[in-house]
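Input for the complex:
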Amino acid sequence: MVIEKEIPPFWEWLLGSSQQLGALVQWVLVMLGLLVLGMILATLIGIGHYGPTRGVRRTLARFWEGCLDLIHISPRRVLGMTRLALQEAIRRRVLVAFLLFSVILLFGGWFLDPESRNPAKQYLDFVLTATSYLVLAVAVVISAMSLPTDIARKTIYTVVTKPVRPIEIVLGRVLGFTAIGTLLLLLNGFASYIFVIRALDHRHEVDPETLQKQTVISDEGDREVLRGETTAVFKHRHRVEIDLKTGKGQTDIVRGHWHQVWIENRGGRQHYVLGPPEGMFVARIIHLADDLTFLDREGRPTKKGLNVGNQWHYRGYIEGNSRMAARWRFRNITPQRYPKGLPLEMTLSVFRAHKGDIERGILGSIVLENPRTGMRSVAQNFIAREYSVFQMLIPRFLKAKDPENPDLELEVDLFDSLVDNGELIIEIQCLESRQYFGMAKPDLYIKVTDGSFRINFLKGLYTIWLQMFLMVAAGVMFSTFLNAAIALLSAGAFTLGGIYSQQILYLATEEQIIGGRSFEAAYRLLTGTPISAPLEEGPVQTLLLTLDAGMRWVYWVIGHMLPDITSLGDVRWVTSGYDIPTNNLLVKTFVVLGFVVPLLIIGHFILKSRELAK
Amino acid sequence: MIGSKDEVVVEIRNLQKVYRDFWGRQKVRALKGLDLEIRRGEIFGLLGPNGSGKTTTLKLILGLLFPTEGEVRVFGLPASDVRKNQRIGFLPEESYLYRFLNAEETLSFYAQLFNIPARKRWQRVNELIELVGLGWARRRQLREYSKGMARRIGLAQALINDPELILLDEPTTGLDPIGTREMKDLILRLRDEHGKTFIMSSHLLADVQDVCDRIAILHQGELKELGRVEDLLKVEDVTEFRVRGLSKEAEEEIKQVIAKHNGQLLSMTNPTTTLEELFLRIVRESEQHPGRRVVGRQLPQTTQSSKSS
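Predicted:
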């Protein structure tokens, strides 16, 4: 699971901590800044039109009227405007977009492969991405074009000559188009869910020739079982085990799912029946570590792992067969939460300095350590494979080394000896020479339980809804002062800018960028100078660097003004099989509100201050 | 809330409007220092050729445009104050309505903008649909309406809040003669029975003459004439008699009397009715006697609707 930007707990994020200002205070400061900037701009425009005295007076009067309007919002009028926006969208057949989506699903089925290694992820990625793009596109188009059309057709005359506040026009439209987007999203979401579930549904049959009766010896008593294989469907088969006493059993996990199996008597004959795939669509609720540190080649603590040459610095790497290690520190590890032990899961990246047998995983070891006493468990080996989730249960009772005498192995209770006041360190090493494990903090976690996939799917749709709500607000805001085409372009640019806001910030904050920033890059393109070659010293280089230094500020401002739309949509949690934490949803809801509220207010004041007739 | 007849409903002081282009350069000076007062209960007409500034004046009163200089106050509030809209109704030049709504939805939507509760809203919607005679087309989308029908529903939306002041921009445009007469009768009835104040702009002089108490004539953004219609139209040195059943001999006698008193007889003819009156009489008789040609001409009892101030 890739989590590039970690989200702090909601209240800490909102109200801040001793080290950092809370989001609420930051928001208020930005709003005050915007207010001052807006007032300066409005006053300058007023002075340009009416001269200094009247200009200032009119601006202040209009501002005051606008503020009064904001506190006199009538829910009934807003509802009226909302209903109008809904009727407009429905009667202009916006829901045709749903039919388009259905067609996409029909044809998309041709290009999706149910025989792939992780078909559920592939299918969910496809349907949720298609849903997201379609809903966002519809939201941007209808929200950006409605008000300019009203102004061009002069229907707005009959509205603004009623006691309607501009905020009610803006808010009503935002709510109306959001309602339409919600309807579209729910229709598409439902169709997507049915499509994925049905497309990946399959049944195997037990291959009777492979069945063998065996005796399983265990502490709870011996039992007779039938073991064999299923037939192959979607290029995979399962091993099956049926308890002869109960007549029930299940298959092993292949491609992320298993099947229930049972024996039925029909007409005096025994039939082996397999149920539908289970565990294919999951929503793991996970317990993440508090931090991840590394040990370097000499075994000294360090914050970062090796860089194996990736431009993306998300993961740090540890070298195999060396003293390098990755150490996760967990908190709140209690026997009440994990009475049977720790169900660990890992999504390590594997980097091979020599290829070897690509199908074979890389050997690693895992050790648990008490952060206070330093007692360490006996290392357990595991095989890590790229692009797969490795699961292992750390049992509650396990062997550990005596800190006084490392040669002595003791049988200990995990919670008594290795966990200290809820804290535990888990250390991973790579055991193969010239091979590397890559890891970021979320690559090792404890699986708490499985949440409901359906609810998680709805949570994923909700994150798309948040993106759509923001786009609608932006579209309506642009439409208060631009004509339809330009408002559409601006809303599109806002969306694109939001999608790439982190890259824009990267251009502002990164000290060294290969190939340079805007002006240097443009110069290199025009002159054919390779990005690796340094620029010749001289006035041209000085000019380009100076211009680019100025552009860093521009990028900084733009990057901070635009919402990070990519991180708002959390569908990858759903497609990767992880439950979206409620904390994330809360934070993102407030982030979106933090943008929507000023967009509404800006739209209100623009509409208030412009002449709607010509 | 009905005030006294002397109450000034609209007050315009030194109103100027300059239209500018994107770069702020002056394009047109549409109004050049207009001063007007419109009092409660009067029907005020803004007259003028195209481009004279009458529609601009209406838009400034409504707050759709902002004055370059001067000010407009409606019910004592600045024109930019949205609270004034609670007491006014507006019928634009063309019925700029949402064509995807039907008549009921249209009126309900505008009623909602006046914060009218649902039960009262639907009662008002039904009353107005009947008033403008569109009961038979209440569920049809406005895109299917003729221009005259759209005009009627436009008038209904202007009346949805039972306004004290109604602004009408070219109210009879697009209406057939019957619709025009009904519109004029309705304006007079609303003024006479409900004390409404009207401001209407029109270049159809006969319509203005029929209904307006006072008029302002604008030309190139300037006020050229202002006053009561009958005062402005009165020809002081000409006397007109209208007599029925006079013989030839009596006519000769009257001519002699005029000559005796040094008067100059300008004309002595049988009057003609207006084309509007003729048309309306033919249509009404045709409705009463379908299939029969209407013959003969008859001087109507009155050629003007009853007008009182």
